[in-house]
Amino acid sequence: MHKEAEDDYARLSSLLQEFTSIPNIDKAWLFSSPGLHLQGMFAVSQSDLLTNTRRTSIMSCNILKERDSSVKFLWAPFPIEMSGVSMIVPSPSGSKLLVIRNPENEAACCFQIWSSSRMEKEFHIPQSLHGTVYNDGWFEGVSWNMNETCVAYIAEGPSPAKLTFNGLGGYKIDGCADKDSGYWKCQGDWEEDWGETYAGKRQPALFVIDINSGEVQEVKGIDKSLSIGQVVWAPFTEGSEQYLVFVGWSSKPRKLGIKYCSNRPCALYAVRLRALHHESKSNEPVLQSTEEFHVMNLTQTISSAFFPRFSPDGKFLVFLSARSAVDSGVHNATNSLHRIDWLTNGKPFQSSKIYDIIPVVMCAEDGCFPGLYCTTIHSHPWLSDNCTMIISSIWHSSEVLLSVNVLSGEIVHISPADPNFSWNLLTLDGNNIVAISSSPVDFAQIRYGKAIKKETNNTTWSWSNISSPIFRCTDKVRSLLSSLQSSILRISVKDAHDGQTKGATKPFEAIFVSSKTNSKIEFDPLIVILHGGPQDVSLSYFSKYLAFLSTVGYSLLIVNYRGSLGFGEEALQSLPGNVGSQDVNDVLSAIDHVINLGLASPSKITVMGISHGGFLTTQLIGQAPDKFVAAAAINPVCNLALMIGTTDIPDWCYVEACGTTARHCFTEPPSADDLTLLYNKSPISHVSKVKAPTLFLLGARDVRVPIYDGLQYARALKEKGVDVKIIMFQNDVHALKRPQSDMESFLNIGVWFNKYCKYGANESQDFLKT
Ligand SMILES: CC(=O)N[C@@H](C)C(=O)N[C@@H](C)C(=O)O
Predict the structure, then answer these.
(1) Which of 218, 393, 462, 637 lies deepest, with the highest CB count within 10 Å?
(2) Is the distance from the beta carbon of residue 261 to the nearest atom of ligand 1 less than 6 Å?
(3) Which residue's C-alpha comes closest to atom 11 of ligand 1?
(4) What span, in angstroms and rounded, lies between the C-alpha atoms of 536 and 620?
(5) Pairing of strands 724-729, 694-699
(6) Which tens digits make up the pLDDT trace of 667-703?
(7) Which domains, from first to last, does the chain contain?
(8) Number of Cβ atoms within 10 Å of the Cβ of 727
């Protein structure tokens, strides 16, 4: 290793670790008991580099409401670590806490029920009943019933029995199979899974546990071809029948990758459970499902329905839909929001009318709501009027808080209008909101929002900062961040032509981060940062790793090229079929834009991106070979003709390369013409022109963009003498998100770019020597 690089590793890694140790708040819950203060619990996570895991803890606080209507959070002196805990779910009254611990090996899953003073019950659920409980944020669903006797949840269905053989021709079914028993277990039939991040998972299934007796039952009557997720109890009905509502994804004719792909058809279903008085071991009636009730599809007339949420009064079932993604075939698109009016007798009704609350927005007028883009909906998003929901949604390059009236469809942007900040809902305190806001150069900050009714009957929201020990960082990091600034740039489309939709010709955006002293005399080098998807977006929130790169002397140009989420459906739909040209042109326009504004030098530009962002990175260094001094590609799509045969989303390859009319082509093996077209649309077809030294960061377990895409391209560069470095993370999937991988990736990106931007020990790195 060169002496310079060695020094760089040492200097950068110590700063990077300071960024890495900053915690995140993942969730929050508030508890109010009569006569007591409001209390809060915040789930905090932090990278633990040595064990390569995320350490999770709970930070508690008392919340004081002062006479002057200000709010104070009094924090416990220390957080408490929650080791081995997969999920915590408070009961509706807040008097019980369910703690779920998934096993690391083939051991039993553990459910604990805690009261305010102690653990009351503990149940171990053997693998013969089910595997691990899903806590993936997608299939995941854990729901207490109203009288807090049962919990419905999603867990991996039991594995099918496997034959075991001995060397003498004998066999048994699912017998003991170790060397000593003289038997070995056969592999059994291979079963399709839901692709990226779901390796080894076959069947998310629905279970109910009676928390008095610990009895667990798999809910009967559900077709085995459905994968189940996001279960909730329907409103309580007087009588012996209760209903569960859940999402079902069909695996017919086969499963395709579902991670980052909301275009997999899904529907809401209802299933009935009956209270059986005679079977109870604890005098409480036991809820049982029976085969005789056919599971009811509640959303037959719409191709996608998920995140079911009942209003607190039980009158409405509201859900999100990705119908636009399902119907067009793009992997993500503009969402819509819908409502079903629930019958007063509490029973589901198959042909209920589905009302549109927020339809898909095709192309918004300037400054108007651009459409709904939600990554989740809070489990209890309701204000006390029973018809207003608080939702986080993407609006151009920022995430904002919206209030949505589910009866009138009225949408109000309630977080402050500054697009340099992004907002995320943590929890609700009655009609008040606890949220988090941050910007690319400002740490996360807890915010408390109160609605203020005006005389005109309009409501405005006032937001106060809540101080917390959670986001404290070192003085060095704080001072480095204070020297940075960020802004959102609007960039005009250069290649507009006849036949395009109006939305496709509207300006797109880029987030620009730079030092406040970035001057025209000596510019900091620029890193162009490109998100994946391509139907995804880079948001104006704080990212430790990007902040790290800007504090070591780089300006960042984070481009939300056309096709990104948050800009309306027409702009989004303009990209499929045009990847490698429209998106490449947008990025080049964004670079010209900052150069023309005098914010960057054309001679010091680097580029990096993950996945489709890696596709763009490698397209750019091939199509504009003199523009970039260095590049970094993370699990990049370099050859669609190669990827199509190995990825979990072959449909994506056709849609992005050929347009949405080609969305069903993947069901046939690719023809020679298809392979030629896919090749021509890929970065590999420009590889002979590349000059930029390129760093490749690859996850060996990536099933989305298998490593051979990156390896083939990197080897081709090496053959022609371009400087290449490959780091292979043996146990990582598509997103290199494990703490050591994240750290090693960004450390190497910093060192790689320093090397080629000829960055020696100049002024902006002096801080590292102190
Ligand atoms: C749909 C999808 O996963 N596309 C990949 C090629 C990709 O770009 N992934 C994105 C989501 C990423 O950022 O990894």
Answers:
(1) 637
(2) yes
(3) 533
(4) 19
(5) parallel
(6) 999 999 999 999 999 999 999 999 999 999 999 999 9
(7) 485-639+682-759 (3.40.50.1820)
(8) 14
